[in-house]
Amino acid sequence: MPYNTFGVVLGTSKYLHGGGINAYFKYRIDAAYFLFRYKKVRYIIVSGDNREKNYNEPKMMKKELIKKGIPSNFIYEDFYGISTLHSILRVHKVFHQKKFTIISQKFHNERAIFIGNCLGLDVIGFNARSLTFDKKIHFREVFARIKALWDVFCFFY
Predict the structure, then answer these.
(1) Contact partners, residue 30, CB within 8 Å, separation at least 6
(2) Do residues 49 and 82 touch, judged by C-beta distance below 8 A?
(3) What is the 3-state secondary structure (H, E, C) of 7-75?
(4) Residue pLDDT, tens place only, 79-88
(5) Domain 4-156 falls in which CATH fold?
(6) What whole-number distance in Å separates Cα of residue 144 and Cα of residue 146?
(7) What is the value of pTM for the model shown?
């Protein structure tokens, strides 16, 4: 795994709708910690949704990374990463990064890397552990990829 100054954890909810910890969240946090601990990234950007008063993905992710031992001054919060496209765009435009590591599950990284490449960025993905085949997630991903194509097409043309 090559070194990048920044790793970007793409947001997801910490908790499942029926209660309990979301494994995708846990595995992304574990992956970010691994990259930081083994000096594959120096800083971590936690990017996610914060549109509702009682829901804050970046805050939840930062809190968990601090619990794992990452100093808070190495973690940046992006509160406007309301979609994968927004997260990738904001790392480039707000944090001024053209080269970074995206941290999520393989299915999500594939889409995020596609978006980054379309934006002319030098991005790589680090695949967090995933669950065995999850029909609901894979069904959702079909539509997310169609939306990514639409977003990229509308963004560039």
Answers:
(1) 128, 129
(2) yes
(3) EEEECCCCECCCCCECHHHHHHHHHHHHHHHCCCEEEEEEECCCCECCECHHHHHHHHHHHCCCCHHHE
(4) 999 999 999 9
(5) Rossmann fold (3.40.50)
(6) 5
(7) 0.91
